[in-house]
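Protein folds are increasingly written down as discrete tokens. With that in mind, we are printing a sequence and the tokens encoding its fold.
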Amino acid sequence: MSEMVITGHTMSRRSVLKALGTGAGAVGLMPWLSDEGLAAFTETQKAAAHKAAAPALKVLTRAQYASIESVVDTIIPTDERSPGAKEARVADYIDLLLSEQGEAKQTWLDGLVALDAESTTRFQAPLTKLQATQMETLLTDISRNEKAPAAQQTPLEKFFVTTKNATIFAYYTSEIGIHKDLHYQGNTFVPEFLGCLTVDGKDCPYCGQKAEPAQSASAQKDGQKNEKEQQ
């Protein structure tokens, strides 16, 4: 599934994130893990990469895990660039977060229960049974007040903010987010810096960007002329 269809239009991952809001500070579940938690998350990803059984959940039940997996995969879906939050094991990251944050854990779990109840009320189906368009509608609606102060948000709106923040943080902590989406190569020896090839009208193998339209000869001459006049 490279794109999601919403009311007759396709939406890329970037469009989905934009539609769901740009994010706001919210008090509650903090999105970062301890060193021990990060080590456990790394092991979970290794197990997934080798098709091995995932480590036992620390907080979430299997039903809760499936529900949050549906939510996070809507926030960051698979697209043409890289796999989404489900494949990156973001739900496992959130399970580890909950195990480390006792005070925020119950509030977040209550929010998940409330979101599932809202899903059932509106669509007569739990989160795991929603169609893509229904999940998009549900999350978009509870994100509309995302930029407001936390005191002015409903419990569901607060739940969405903290979950989206955790999802994004988890995704770009994962192997998939770092290497497949950001194309981070690590500290490697580069004999020469070639720059982005898109300026030459080519798809760039380094940053993954598509080619920019090449300038015509007359446009290039006009640009050079303007530069000389400015000098």
Remarks:
- Residues 197-230 form one domain.
